[in-house]
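QA checklist item 7 of 12: single-chain prediction sanity check.
[x] sequence parsed
[x] length recorded as 411
[x] structure emitted
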Amino acid sequence: MTLGLLAALKARGLAVAPAKTGPDYIDTAILARVAGAPAINLDPWAMSQARLASLAASHAAGADLLLVEGVMGLFDSAIDGRGSTADLAAALKLPVILVVDVEKQGQSVAALVSGFARFRRDVEIAGIIPNRASTTRHEKLLLEALKPLGIPVLGVIPRRDTLHLPERHLGLVLPAEIAAFDAIVGAAAAMVEEFIDLNHMIGLSGPLSPLDIMEPRRRLPPLGQRIAIAKDDAFSFIYQHLLDDWQAQGAELSFFSPLADEYASTDSNAILLPGGYPELHAARLAGASRFLSSLTAARDRDALIYGECGGYMVLGEEMTDKSGKPYKMAGLLPGKTDISRPKRALGYRRLRHTGELPWPRDLLGHEFHYSSGGGGNPLFEVTDAAGEPLPPMGAVVGRVMGSYAHVIDIA
């Protein structure tokens, strides 16, 4: 639905600034591809209200519309009850368009929508889009049931089983790997244009409201003055707001492709290996001698090398792929990782680092992976969103360090 809206609005000549609620780095990559503009994460669990307002305002500047995709259900949150799409809508005073799966519902849809509309007084349900209606008779029944609520129905979307994107263990498959991606988005845009009153939807929008009290915005310091960042299909999970923060503080960023066996810049004093899907490219990475030797050379010149999730796996001694085949990795951190026996770890994390990261000790992040393993002196002391202790995470050897956590912001 979000991709169809983005594409339809773009086809009308509007510049849309896309954003994703929460920590999902895959969805932002997909939103950016369709919008033709960078997408950001707005995370009401890991970011302060002032941080959210500042990010939203700067992202929306110069665009005609800020369109934010939710996460899970409107009120679903972390284990501590914080971080829902509703929390973000309330913090930024954003009107909510409620998309309701009506495939197996009749008049009960009115009770459902009424409950959502009344659940929180600080959240405005400004419009409804019933989705997956089976027939025109079904549509008429839904509209009659919803009419007494007084909430605008922006359009009813019929059921279309072809409108879906493939998934894998961490979420949606990235657009570059889907041959029919543009066709799927085009079909979704055509459906949106046909069945949704876009002018009405745009009319529900309004200016971003400034916060009554703005605390000083805190930025995560850059890893170094010159940061070489791995970026390709194996290393694609990175938060745009961190890159913007580092550049705003004067850091110089360069990008290189390990899959193309490119050498990390020799004048960098920090290297970042973000998360991604290195397990899908283990053989190519194991054979990327220039890339691997550049990590060793950086270690020897005392550059800071930091890996998150997939990047952490590549810094280790060995990675075992889904088929059970092991591949030698950089060997700069102790331990081996294995994805042949998937074990999901998911959730927000409170982190306290023990390494030489140029960051405050207390950080907020997210953990989402199916591989397991590692070893050595851990990089982070960890608790979950509710403050319950978890096993220490990651490894650190001198100025080489990494973990499964994706750092989002300062605690």
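[x] summary fact logged: The chain has a mean pLDDT of 92.
[ ] second reviewer sign-off
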